[in-house]
Amino acid sequence: MAEIFGDFVENLPKHAEYLIFGFSPNSISLQQRWRNNGLSADFLADYVKSFFISQPDFELQEEVKGAVSYIANELLENAMKFCEEEYGHPTSIQLHLYNENLVFLVRNSLNPERQQSFQDFIKTLDSEDLADLYIRQLELNALDEEHTHSGLGYLTMMQDYEAKLGWKFEVVKNKTTQESVPIVTTMVQLGIF
Amino acid sequence: MKIETPDYTIIYNEADASIMCTGSLRLNGTQEYAPILNLFNTAAEQKFPVLTIDLKELRFLNSSGINILSKFVISMRQQQDTIIRVIGSKAVPWQGKSLKNLQRLMTTLELNIE
What we know:
- The complex is a heterodimer.
- Helices cover about 45% and strands about 25% of the residues of chain A.
- By secondary structure, chain A is an alpha+beta fold.
- In chain A, strands 1-5-6-4-3-2 form a six-stranded antiparallel β-sheet, with helices on one face.
- Chain B is an alpha/beta fold.
- In chain B, strands 1, 2, 3, 4, 5, 6 and 7 form a seven-stranded mixed β-sheet that branches.
- Chains A and B meet through helix 1, helix 2, helix 4 and helix 5 of A and helix 2, helix 3 and helix 4 of B.
């Protein structure tokens, strides 16, 4: 049974414009995949900007482009870092364009041992003041050499870009091996007007 | 002192007590950012009255980079001899959104977004 956290919309409204990229976890090294994150994020940003060509506000165009690039990059970095390669399950990023907002969906496999700490972090996003949590996370990261600043990407999306985030955790069956694969889908909703 | 790659350049100019970052920074975690943090710390050791960090041409910084920059600012809090001056650009959207958080970490930090 799926578990939902935060602002997660199960059935997105139908519309015309969307992009989907898929990445196989085993095809290339993490280093090369990491490099591709930037290429993918910048492509998505340029693609979105092309829909705003008729919009007279150049600053707004650049702001939306910058936001898309940042959010897509962060989502892909998280997915690449935390997907469990052993499952051989592809990672995907979708970008849906609506009149007043953009919706990102990133879906990747997840090591089940990480699921609890991930969900615990998500719960703090609802229960604590975002600005305080952001600063506290930075202070903790500064003290701990081993800390991987988990969650800072999400915190910046919410605080600096005023995005709404949601997550869906579920288990799917690998069609070939019939293995059960834990999957997390991260949704980011970004208002553009 | 300089770090130069196809994606970014970091230049520490001791003569004018400045560090300039240009390009796009999307490194993977603390370990990959270590050489950059070392460069910043080298500048910090000089205890300049004002250390300028010029980010006007830094088009992209991922959250790992924001974390490292923040970590450096936090480390400078103890060093009360040096004022940190961060220069950003209105033409680079992420800077208007994220750099102000540095002032929350260090209230004496000067931030100019030109």
